[in-house]
Amino acid sequence: MKITAYIRTAYNQLRARLARRILSWRVQARHPDMRCDATAIWDYPFHELDGIEIGNDVTVGPFAEIIVRRTCKYSDIEGKLRIGNTAVISTGCNIRAAGGLIEIGDFSAIGQNTVIVAANHNVKAGLKYVFMPWDTTKTGVIIGTNVWVGANCSLVAGTRIGDNSVIAAGSVVTGDVPANEIWGGVPAKFIRKIE
Asked: HEC states along 135-155?
């Protein structure tokens, strides 16, 4: 391999790292009271910073990856991210606000390594799934106020979690969770009321 290939590869990697740092700095400059670990990745088109709304006193943990796309080629539905006051995004969370709204309410906590996805690809026999348009019948994820989502959960498009509810660790949520309830499992099911 020629030395120019090594230099080109190193240059491209450094350029990508710098671009991600700039995107992160822009989010933090707009929300100076947010506590965001330096390893967290904010990935959004430079001109779409207004697709991200963050309340006061928010914490974003190490190695979280937050992707926001107001527009994308796979969906006509606008992507947007809203994070309420005093919300917590823990270590290693993956939040993908493209093709729908992801909203995390005030005082809600998202456990480690949780994945939240606003849209899914359609599936059709004989076609490449990754190139299919996204499903527009179920989009977005809405998490109410004072919700606790345990570690290693998956919240897929169309999920709605009511205020004061708890999602047990390792759960997959695919629909509506009423307020004041504990749900868990794959797929998540009602466990008990919170009195």
From this structure: CCCCCCEEECCCCEECCCCEE
The model's pLDDT over 22-78, given as tens digits with 9 standing for 90+, comes to 999 999 999 999 999 999 999 999 999 999 999 999 999 999 999 999 988 888 899
Question: Considering the entire predicted model, what is its pTM?
Answer: 0.91
* Active-site annotation holds for 121: yes
> CA 120, 50, 76 angle in degrees (round to 5)?
35
Show me where the domains of the chain are located: 3-193
Question: Which class does domain 3-193 fall in?
Answer: mainly beta
Given the residues 20, 26, 121, 138, select the one marked as catalytic.
121
H or E stretch covering 189: strand 189-193
